[in-house]
Each structure stands twice: as C-alpha cells, then as structure tokens.
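Late entry, evening session. Most of the bench is empty. Finally got around to the prediction I had been postponing all week. Sequence below, unchanged from the version circulated by S.P.
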Amino acid sequence: MSLFLWILQIVLALMFMGIGGQRLTRSSRQLGKLPWTDGYSPAAIRALGAVELLAGLTLLVPGVLGWAPLLTPLAACGLVVLMALAVLLHLRRNQRQAAVLPAILLVMAAFVAWGRIDRME
C-alpha cells in the first residue's frame, strides 16, 4: 500500500507541478487561449498555478525529507477541493470532456489523502 501511495503522490506531484508551472510561465495571451479561462484575469490564473505548484511540492517534500508528515494529506485534501471546483466549472460550462481529467485527479488526490491520514494513526 505504501508503494502505491508513493506512486500516486509522485504522479500527482508531477502533474500539478507541471500544470502550475505552465500557468506561472505562460504569457497572458497564451493563458487566454485556454477554453476555461473566460472571465478570469491572468493574475487569478497565475495564482491558481502557484497553488497547484505548491500543492505538488507538498505532496512529496515532507515525505522525502521526513518532516511535517501532516502536510501531505492536507495538500491532497486541498487538491480534492480544487479538482471538485474544476469539475463543477467544466460541467457548468458544458465542457464534459474537459471535466474528465480533473475528476480522475480528484479521485487520486482523495486516495492519497485517505491513505496518508490513515497511516498517521
């Protein structure tokens, strides 16, 4: 189980660090081309990218360094909320296909949160 949780954490961390990094480094024009960004400022999209990047790092760093193990399930819970909001956004905009990836990431993050909280007892 521990190996499986680590694999999930690594996959999630890479996904969110990559996505967050892209949102932080793309130009405002490039950010505006994404279909879900209508109505959101580039600053809001960059803030989202910073949160995703930080959450991705927090999925790995505490476990690798052996400190503050509570941060990992907290980061995973934060990603569950973030992905639930992403799914709702896509569904409200009738972008059903775009809601699939956030739904998958939501389930993965929920599993990590549950698995890491369960191991803390």
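Two things to note before I forget:
The two ends are 15 Å apart (CA to CA).
The chain has five helices and no strands.
Will write this up properly tomorrow.
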